Amino acid sequence: MTKAIAQTYKTTHEYSREINAALIAACALFLMIYSLNVYRVVSRTVALKSVENQTATLTTAVDGLDSQYLQLTSKLSPDTLSEYGLSQGQVSAFISRTTSLGSVASRDHEF
């Protein structure tokens, strides 16, 4: 056992420069990987914040347009539409819902 320890010590003493260089290279590699990961996290966080700001801006714009739409549609009635030349159309053909049509629709096409 003592001989094995002495042999290990002799080997490590002979290659101590190479071992230290390998350890320093490994540390440098891990430092580069760590800094790359930190950069990626920071850049993705900044991009996410930018998207959140754009989403807030678009939400505000859509809310404004929605309120304008509601204001405009609340003023519409058949009488005001007739002032612009619009009238109610006539339905030329009507397909009644039969029992066979209802069973086909509920069985095959509706979930």
Number of E-type strands: 0
- Which spans of ≥5 residues are poorly predicted at pLDDT below 50? none
Query: Share of helix among residues?
Result: over 70%
Question: What gap, in angstroms, lies between the N and C termini?
Answer: 77 Å
Describe, in plain words, how this protein is organized in 3D.
The N and C termini lie far apart (77 Å). This protein has helices spanning 2-14, 16-74, 78-83, 99-109. By secondary structure, the protein is mostly helical. Helices cover 80% and strands 0% of the residues. The chain is built from 4 helices and no strands. The longest helix has 59 residues, at 16-74. The chain is elongated.
What does the secondary structure layout of this molecule look like, with pairings?
Elements: H1 2-14, H2 16-74, H3 78-83, H4 99-109
Summarize the entry for a quick read:
With 111 residues, the chain is mainly α. The chain has helices at residues 2-14, 16-74, 78-83, 99-109. Helices cover 80% and strands 0% of the residues.
What descriptive keywords fit this protein?
mainly alpha; 80% helix; 111 residues
